[in-house]
């Protein structure tokens, strides 16, 4: 209980102090202290299970990922400078801490209604972060994000109401207290469809994925890292909590079929759009849609692919966050997101170029990336199930996305230029640390069974 109070009390106090500060450096230090407190409480909760407001294994897993990414983002911000006024930066930092608090509450909560409230809160807070640059394009992206995610959240709310209807006696939204023996299978199935599509919208799953490329293209690099590496995972939590109900009620196969349908559709959409996209941040956003689809496919296959799904969540979060932070370096150097206009990054800024190339290799699943192991087991599970057509289709789509990412990396990094530009060392530190951590996990990961 005490850990939970500290988790939410500090950022509330930090928000008050932030509104009084006129120094960007001091604001950054408050955010950094919040991130260090966050990761400290995460480690404490891992060592002493259930110490953080009774958080369970699923919530703790997502909480630890958020802790690592938030810490990386906080360090990155120390070296990330822009021309905004202190007033704008102060508001941005306040909404950043609110955004993290909302995700914290969603990971800890067990009640689906409470989870719904805080996921909706992440939408409002992160929309303000997406519109940080206050351009016409960023304002449009923020409104598009608000509108589409609000539609998704409304569908999820309808699903939650249907879940209540499915319980004729003693209805509750605490999933671990729902009596599966008394639940109505008919209403539970309908409820799950609404919840999957609703929260799947927030995950960036097709067919309501349209907000994600625009939001990532316009958001600052640290925010893109948190949106892709943390928020998409948090939106998956309520789906997995209701998935347990589906399996315990004998409706697991229905859930798996829906996972496979939306998963393959998401990977297909990503493969199609990534081919004609020139904005490198949008390409990374479509890669996030692809990886969310892969995670859903893994849950749909079941068996040992279920464990591969959690590994994929972890690997994608670390590598994609590093990639977005590296993309922030490239955008700072070129001030242009169209990769066809860029080049010679190896000559201009060797550190950022190597980070880009390594991120490219790891996000497509080459060793020592943990995504190599997760993709291998997902593909193996498809073959074991005799789904040869699905296996072939998945391999084709992944090849298309991988080719596009590698092609972009080579165009940006190769070329000859006399220009040189150095960056603050902290802009290399965070993505490097995330990639090293991902590599360590990929090399020393125990076997999946």
Sum this structure up briefly.
This protein has helices at 2-18, 24-47, 57-79, 86-108, 112-130, 136-165, 185-203, 211-218, 221-248, 252-275, 280-301, 305-334, 345-348, 350-363, 370-384, 388-413, 426-444.
Query: What is the average of the pLDDT values?
Result: 93
Anisotropy-based shape: globular
- Which value, in Å, is the CA radius of gyration? 21 Å
The biggest sheet, with number of strands, parallel, antiparallel or mixed sense and barrel status, is: none
User: In what range is the share of β-strand residues?
Assistant: under 5%
Distance from first to last alpha carbon: 35 Å
Written description of the protein model:
With 449 residues, the chain is mostly helical. It has a domain at 251-449. The protein is built from 17 helices and no strands. The chain has helices spanning 2-18, 24-47, 57-79, 86-108, 112-130, 136-165, 185-203, 211-218, 221-248, 252-275, 280-301, 305-334, 345-348, 350-363, 370-384, 388-413, 426-444. The longest helix is centred in the middle third of the chain and has 30 residues, at 136-165. The radius of gyration is 21 Å and the shape is globular. The mean pLDDT is 93.
